[in-house]
Write a structure and sequence with these properties.
It is a single chain. It is built from no helices and 11 strands. The chain is an all-beta fold. The strands form 2 sheets. Strands 2, 4, 5, 6, 9, 10 and 11 form a 7-stranded mixed sheet that branches. Strands 1-3-8-7 form a 4-stranded antiparallel sheet, with no helix packed on it.
Length: about 120
């Protein structure tokens, strides 16, 4: 059964950090682009970051550049999103997704996790 499972979300104060994990099962992440997307209440889903299958290239949305870092560990079939200097506007459900194509668009992702909630609040 193909599955992506996110973990690591929670409540954090502004300026704090969280590390999200995405674990794949039923398929090998090696040949997939991995993306992190988020959806805040009342807003459309947006792309946060993507990483190529060789881990040599990464994309970040302007809103998270310099604060978030995407990484992957193909040996563990996992991907990560390190989030630092969190802001209230980062509050959202965060989803990981995988695409066999070299793209970073939600519509082109084949597999999705169910999401993990990140709340940034004092």
């Amino acid at each position: 059964q193909v599955q992506l499972v996110e973990s690591g979300g929670g409540l954090v104060q502004p300026g704090g950090s969280l590390r999200l994990s995405c674990e794949a099962s039923g398929f090998t992440l090696d040949y997939y682009v991995i993306g992190w997307f988020r959806q805040a209440p009342g807003k459309e889903r947006e792309g946060v970051s993507c990483i190529g299958n060789s881990a040599g290239t990464a994309y970040y949305a302007d809103s998270v550049k310099g604060r978030f870092t995407i990484s992957r560990d193909n040996a563990k079939n996992r991907a990560y999103l390190q989030m630092n200097s969190l802001r209230p506007e980062d509050t959202a459900v965060y989803y990981c997704a995988a695409s066999p194509a070299y793209v970073c668009k939600a519509d082109d992702m084949d597999y999705w996790g169910k999401g993990t909630l990140v709340t940034v609040s004092s």
